[in-house]
């Protein structure tokens, strides 16, 4: 068990390709941090820098109380789960789990004990004599987990471990990994590009964009107070609507938006914060033309357009309303649920 | 093919059966000839049906040789061929695996330069540098030795390229996982890379064993001591030794014994052989 | 040329790993080749006592030497003959075998093993079959009124060594043609059949053009084989005779250098051969480059 501290970490690949810039993260002992961001934003690079698979070109990395910048992966006391699992194809499941222990000179009895224990925890005890190619995707994923578990490392590193599974299995494994992590209380760094995975699994999540941190915070924090327009657009689905503040101000009496800073020229509205009920005291209302109604069983998505601006808006309702396309609908929203941003800097204001 | 007309198939089988017969014919003739007594070859045309002397002929060539013509028993030559073929095969495989490993899994100054040096061997077969190579081997005191028979032949660009090609297809993550699991370069090579390459190694083994066994010019150049004659070059001494007609029954028995080991290797490992051949592209 | 994304770091290990291969290459390949280059510019007197730097005189002499020019001509016909004979028979076999479903593997087994026979042994086998006094072929040919004698007729000798060399190479060509045929999508042939092309026409307009890269590759490989790997065929049978009719370049370079000890000339011949291999290897790699990304 250990904490991980990243101080001003940066990575420049050969050929002057900058992948990671000035990253500062403190991962507490036993905490699960999820790195999330779009493809190519540097998530894997950062994770691999922590693992020791990429050299650290800038900054300092601590695991526990050691500076590990120069240490080999094997000496950093970490274990890693790869996206394609990277199981040794010619070894049995048992040997896949045992390999790292053997290399570290563990006694046979101890190896046996640990493998059996991990196998039991992951319910792969029946497959110990099989080769990886004789396993299903989900089973392979468990073996990959097992290989990390047996080592009892100071930290787990996951690089999109669920992205090769089908949707259903993904949800199931997501729950299992999180439960396991909570039980073992092992410090974890988990990479994904799936915002839902990030929200559900993280103690805290780190949103990366273009190699820089956009925001660090608990899932609720990041969700309800996105620090930038990028985070606002990336976390939450459907994505947050963005309307020009000028247009909004024209809709309502001046004082109803008075609580927002003057500098705010872009207003974010989460699709689920709107409702069809008439506006109450602390709410404002907003009308638009219904272009498309998408019923989705328990909920529905409504696509709206407005007079005079090109921006459109999506509304998510927890039911399927009885409305016709082409009608003009009026929605209400609590004033405090408006997210004010500054267009030029992309930052949240106030 | 699309439609299966019966005459077409019949014709194809006919062509193939005649073809196979022609391809087999020389070896059939050799086997037949090796079963006849010497008298058969003095007059008339060679026999096409087996004779009674098989056992005797084979016993003669293997154990006695022809003392009159100064040909040693071929059991020794068979052994020499085997040792040479194995040494060449194992040598080529080992040094090529190591080179390919270095070229793929390390970054170091002059990497490309070394790659080209190895590549050059493709362009310099023994046949184009006979004398100077002989000179080098003589200067190193390697004439009439197994080292001389094998070491100069074990550089292999083909095998190095094949392994390089194969290593490039091994997923990156395997090496990363091994590193996280505490394996250094040589441990990774031994525990992961070698077991994964085993089919490729076996396929190349077949090709190179045949290559080694069938060496001709090289042993001819560097052996003068019958102690080190190999079977393939030894045959030449039997057919051209002296002015008289060769002793065909014994020559053919020797031919059969010389050709048999590599043929058996191909027949028993046809899959690997085809893989090895078509993947090395040379 | 790539490596893995992540590489091991060691300042000496890669050199140690490369050392055996590189050292052997330097000692037994590069050094002798450079010696050949150097010696091709020297001339030794008969007793090997004095050496003289003569620039390109050895080459000039060679190209003025009717024996050498003859050897080039002989090599040309030998290579062309071997390549054509072996490739056309192999293509025929491959096309026929490719039609088969159940018997494909058995035929293949019967056709691949001559690959294992050493060229020298192939030579001896056919030499025996063509033996003027007891061979079966002269006996058969006699029935057609042809008097076969490769001991006196240069043409007969040439035909014999071509057959011996081509016989051994059929397996190789066959396997590559078969692999090529099997990689042609069946749908193409079906499409042509629907378009009403006859079987014969389908072969020449669809199949053969698709085989052309392999055909080119095999041509180069066969020429290399005929020029350099057939030393044994000649040495074990005709020894270049009768009267130089089968004296191919590699046999001549061996005779002149190793037997007659004519250092300068042999070195110059080596250099010419090297130039030929380089040209052929480059041709071959143009093909491989298109298929495999080095
Ligand atoms: N070895 C390398 N050399 C140069 N640039 C690289 C290298 N590896 C990655 N990059 C670049 O660094 C950036 C970050 O890559 P990284 O793999 O970390 O992205 P990622 O966030 O993991 O994306 P994904 O979600 O697609 O896996 C990318 O622009 C990528 O092109
Ligand atoms: Mg990634």
Description:
The complex is a heterotrimer of chains A (350), B (282) and C (294). Chain A is an alpha+beta fold and 350 residues long. The mean pLDDT of chain A is 91. The two termini of chain A are 38 Å apart. The longest helix of chain A has 18 residues, at 167-184. Chain A has helices at residues 43-51, 93-103, 108-122, 137-150, 167-184, 195-201, 219-224, 229-234, 245-251, and strands at 4-13, 17-27, 32-36, 58-63, 66-67, 78-81, 155-159, 187-192, 204-209, 212-217, 241-244, 266-269, 283-296, 299-305, 312-317, 328-334, 339-341. Chain A is built from 9 helices and 17 strands. Chain B folds into 2 domains: 6-69; 74-280, Orthogonal Bundle (MetI-like fold). Helices cover 69% and strands 0% of the residues of chain B. In chain B, α1 packs across α13 (248-268). Chain C is mainly alpha-helical and 294 residues long. Chain C has a single domain, classed as MetI-like fold (Orthogonal Bundle), CATH 1.10.3720.10. Helices cover 72% and strands 2% of the residues of chain C. Chain C has 12 helices and 2 strands. Chain C has a two-stranded antiparallel ribbon. The longest helix of chain C has 34 residues, at 66-99. The model of chain C has no long low-confidence stretch (mean pLDDT 86). The chains are: A alpha+beta (350), B mainly alpha (282), C mainly alpha (294). Adenosine-5'-triphosphate is lined by residues 13, 17, 19, 37, 39-45, 193 of chain A. Adenosine-5'-triphosphate binds at residues 13, 17, 19, 37, 39-45, 193 of chain A.
